[in-house]
Specification:
By secondary structure, the protein is of the alpha/beta class. About 35% of the residues lie in helices and about 20% in strands. It has a single domain, classed as Alpha/Beta hydrolase fold, catalytic domain (Rossmann fold, 3-Layer(aba) Sandwich). The protein starts with a helix and ends with a helix.
């Protein structure tokens, strides 16, 4: 099917900006688009706090749309190519996840590049997951569901952290949820058909991916499975996975390849390609019923 007409209409109104990327200005632009609290999806309780870990003190935002003192938990990592995004810009996703699933959502304000390159974001994310496990009910986790969820680069963090914890013998994570993840940072536009088919005109453009990733990568090796989870040889024993991709996303094929490789390794996988959608459809277009279904699907996957 063609690009969703509402997505196409909005993309046509956006300016095409050339020149060097300015992370500070781009972050300010994103923050300026965050709606006031009164206009956001209501959740019973939202608390800003800090997870004090051995790695760093990581800002987190905890969402609970339940009156239970403890519940299953989703640890959520926002997208933004590791140099954009924040607890605020992705607040709406965490709110919708909390309502749809009935679980406590802990959104992680991990360190951003280029000020903090790889592996700072992963270290913060993994430390928060470890903090939840160690704190248990003090962190609002009742010992049941412990899901990792993320969109775009946040989805990449989900894959990398789930695998790293498994390697360390920590198997408390019960599910991994990846919305259009970027799992192959060894960028070769010819490797995946979606990189050429969806190169221009669908929001995220193939030519822009490498400059975005460069802030995070710096001296990192793209062959490292923590950087490119699809490079991991042994995927056995990882948590069940939900992978959502967009039909017109340049990163579509790498996400779907990772899902197939998980399935071949015996991991239960639910893979859904959202038709008419480009990259970022959960972040930017979940107000459209076709894409808001991602939250319902996540809740079904997590077993509500």
């Amino acid at each position: 099917m063609p690009l969703h007409p509402e997505i196409a209409r909005i993309l046509a109104t956006l300016p095409h900006e050339d020149g060097p990327l300015d992370p500070v200005a781009m972050r300010a632009g994103e923050e300026a688009q965050v709606p006031p609290l009164a206009d956001r999806h209501p959740v019973r309780e939202v608390v800003d706090t800090v997870a004090h870990t051995a790695v760093s003190d990581v800002p987190i935002r905890v969402y609970a749309d339940t009156d239970a003192d403890a519940s299953g938990v989703i640890v959520y990592f926002h997208g933004g190519a590791w140099f954009l995004g924040s607890l605020n810009t992705h607040d709406h996703i965490a709110r919708q996840l909390a309502t749809a699933t009935g679980l406590r959502v802990i959104s992680v304000g991990y360190r951003l590049a280029p000020e903090n390159a790889f592996p700072a974001a992963l270290e913060d994310g993994q430390a928060v997951v470890g903090w939840v496990i160690a704190q248990g009910e003090d962190a609002g986790w009742d010992g049941s569901t412990l899901a990792l969820a993320g969109d775009s680069s946040g989805g990449t963090m989900v894959a990398a952290i789930a695998a790293t914890l498994h390697d360390a013998g920590v198997d408390a994570v019960t599910h991994q949820v990846m919305f259009y993840p970027s799992v192959d940072l060894d960028l070769d536009p010819g490797r995946y058909p979606s990189m050429t088919e969806n190169a221009v005109g669908y929001g995220l453009e193939t030519a822009g991916i490498a400059p975005f990733n460069a802030f995070y990568m710096q001296t990192a090796d793209p062959q490292d499975p923590r950087v490119s989870p699809v490079k991991r040889e042994d995927l056995t024993g990882l948590p069940p996975a939900l992978v959502l991709t967009g039909e017109f996303d340049p990163m579509r094929d790498e996400g779907e390849l990772y899902a197939r490789r998980l399935e071949e390794a015996g991991v239960p996988v639910t893979l859904t390609r959202y038709l008419g959608a480009g990259h970022g459809f959960v972040q930017h277009f979940s107000w459209l019923p076709e894409y808001g279904r991602a939250f319902t699907q996540t809740a079904e996957f997590l077993g509500r």
